[in-house]
Amino acid sequence: MRRGRVWGAGAVGAAGVALALVAGCTGGGGGGGPEPTGTTSGAARSFLTGEPGAAGHVLAVKIDNVPAARPQTGLNDADIVYAIEVEGGLSRLMAVYDSEHLPSAVGPVRSARQTDIQLLAEYDKPALAFSGAQSELLPVLKKSDTLVAVTGTKDFFRNHDRPAPHNEYLHPEAAAEKGGTAKDIGLRFATAVPAGGTAVNTASAKMPAARFSFAWNGSDYRVSMDGKQSPWKADNVIIQHVAVKQSDFHSRTGFVPFSQTVGHGSAQILRNGRSYAATWDRPSETDGTAYTVDGRTLPLQPGHTWIVLEP
């Protein structure tokens, strides 16, 4: 259970506050899109979850997702979890936290990729915690203008009950304070279920050597990976179809994927047991990502979101 949050389709509705559907936000949400309407005057709302609360500092953590790394630690406290293709067609996770809602530990922490730089550019210079990177990529990460690289600090520790390299974890408080303040990244929220869509209780996404499935249980989505149910849950799921090319930073082990999150494409959005065929659009790295249906922004249920970057 996420600290300070109620998981359920009507959690924020019980507070009597709704964020309304926003129309025509096709230019992304990096501060330039329309503002949400229908909020209580003066009420602070998270840009990342639509829930009550002032914006904190943003920390993204790269997390292992091979079977030996499961179950991971701290994923249900994340505002957003991205699933990203890495070498061999496997998946890796990126958990994004607001410093106001941090678990005591996160992990297992693994290495960063070029995809992370472009993806995080829509945030306000967040901290990115990772265990290492390809030798030519590491200095690029450390000099990046779009993120603050955090690796090798005293806040990383080993859990000796697990085998290396799947046993490095992070106490996230100090790392989170290095990140920029949460800003509009294009997401919109409303407790009212949008019109349209199709009633769907299960959906899946895949990478060459990884599978994700999401099952609606009447209050949230339960996450399964590679056919096995996990402890993780989400209020929303976005399966975002992206182009994948060879990274500029190669590996001796073969093809290194770079998932392109600038551009546009199709997406499937799941909320409240319904599926919506959507379009995603992000014109540039500094823009947020708009998710629309027939030109109108599709609002998410206030809460926790998984975004799978499906090739």
Automatic annotation (TrEMBL):
Pfam families: DUF3048, DUF3048_C. SUPFAM superfamilies: YerB-like. Signal peptide: none annotated. Residues 48-177, 210-307 form the DUF3048 domain. Gene3D superfamilies: YerB-like (3.50.90.10). This is DUF3048 domain-containing protein.
